Amino acid sequence: MNRRIFHSLSSATRIHESSRCFSVSTATSTCPDLKKAVHDCLSVLNPSRGEPLIVAVSPVYGPQTSSLPTLLPPSNTAVGTVVTNLVDAASSTMIPGVSISTLKGIESSHVFAQSGLRPTWSKAVGRWPDLGRGFGSGSERGGFDLDHFRSVSSSAEAGQGVLTGELAKLAEQSRIPDLFLLFSDREPQQFLDALSKFFPTSKIIGAVGAQTPFVNGLPFTLLHNGKIQSNGVVGLAMFDKSGLQSSRVKTAFPGVRVLGDSLTITNCKGNVVLNLDGANAVAQILKRINKHGRSGVSDDTSPLTLRVDPYDIADKQIYARIWDAEETLPATEDPAQMSTASVYKLIGGDPSKGILAIESSRDLLPGMKIQFLYPSASFHTEQSTGQTLVQPFSKDFKFAFSTTHPDSVHVPLKDNDEGRSAGSDVLAVTTEAIICKRGGLDQWETCDIPYSVSVFS
Fold first, then answer.
1. Cα 38 to Cα 406: distance, rounded to the nearest angstrom
2. With helix as H, strand as E and coil as C, how does 255-308 read?
């Protein structure tokens, strides 16, 4: 059986006392035996005692993944998760195996874990009880009054009793990490609200782990030091004023295409858009869908050529790119380019009310810009025909997480896999959803739009 260990050590990992910089050093092994794969990675990295380890493992190891904590040195702290696939950053090729990363050039770091969080995302915001047709009085709608609906954000109540352990200490001391690296289950929203409240200027990047009930019997497999937890969040809080503060979290959405010019939100409540450019919001999007379908500009119009029932807007996988009015974002900007704009799913539309519901915990505001997007059929075809990411990863990325399509499969292990060179110092994986917050007062977001990319560089 042949195997190769992939390891990349560039000049960026050589840390000098006079010129320290943040870098990631990653070793990856595709050995079919998990114990041997972990051993090979550790042999290459040779981490110092107490140095935190970041671990990503593909689900192809099956029940072996439950034994991951026992394979790591007890003298090192560790966080990690099972992901859909690893990525060889040099070739942007999806591969199976194990990746272990260490960090260089940061002042300090704190490993943490949270569990028992309140589920929120499974209850789609913007979908209300049957309110009848139109907006009459509260009694006409079973006591529901739209005027009492103000916000979908839970940030006002965030953090009460959520943060524990190391994070609670940091909050008490008013110490704000420069970067959080997270791995979570599908419901990190309550935790992210708490982070935004107590650490408002911190950047966040992370990944929702792969679901593992058919891998090892656990809903999720989240590694925290010598234990596996099946829900919640694990991660690393990092401090480094010189290196991390100058780096940025960015996102790109190469799997979607622009659907018409941008519009201005002129009336909204919570995550519900009532009017766009002063007109019925549903009518505005239907006009763009019908115009785009008739234009026949490219093969990417094929998903929208049929007439769309207004009640089925969410089923057509339409997305909305939203940004603040003061931000400069040209209407023609390619969603595949790295930017700071947020993209959300449309989760509902009602033509009688003329409203659209956006899958966001962020309160929309009048004056914000919105641009509709749709899935690219040609991009999906190109991406699904091979194991190479159509949107390549850059060697300058430190962390790079890309979402997969629901129909994507795990790359299998092969006894005779010759491997490929990683080529750069980056932890790169594909996963079910990405987590990011760009710093400042920016809102956190989770995104499972296929082929979305979040990077820290």
1. 28
2. CEEEEEEEEEEEEEECCEEEEECCEEHHHHHHHHHHHHHHHCCCHHHHHHCCCC
pLDDT greater than 80 at residue 43: yes
Q: Could you tell me whether strands 256-269 and 369-375 are parallel, antiparallel, or unpaired per DSSP bridges? A: antiparallel
76 compared with 9, residue with greater pLDDT: 76
DSSP 8-class letter at 339? B
pLDDT in tens, 273-289: 999 999 999 888 888 88
Residues 297-353: tens digit of each pLDDT: 444 444 444 344 444 444 567 888 888 876 665 444 677 777 777 788 888 878 778
What burial class does residue 253 get, using C-beta atoms within 10 Å of its C-beta: 0-12 exposed, 13-18 middle, 19+ buried? buried
Average pLDDT for 65-76:
93
Cα separation, 256 vs 265, in Å, equals: 21
**How does DSSP assign 217-267, residue by residue?**
SSSB-EEETTEEESSSEEEEEEE-TTTTTT--EEEE-TTEEEEEEEEEEEE
What separation in angstroms does the CA of 283 have from each of 97, 160, 230, 290? 49, 41, 44, 10
Amino acid at 174: S
Q: Coil, helix or strand for 12?
A: helix
Helix or strand (DSSP H, E) at 181: strand 179-184
Judged by DSSP in three states, 347 sits in: strand
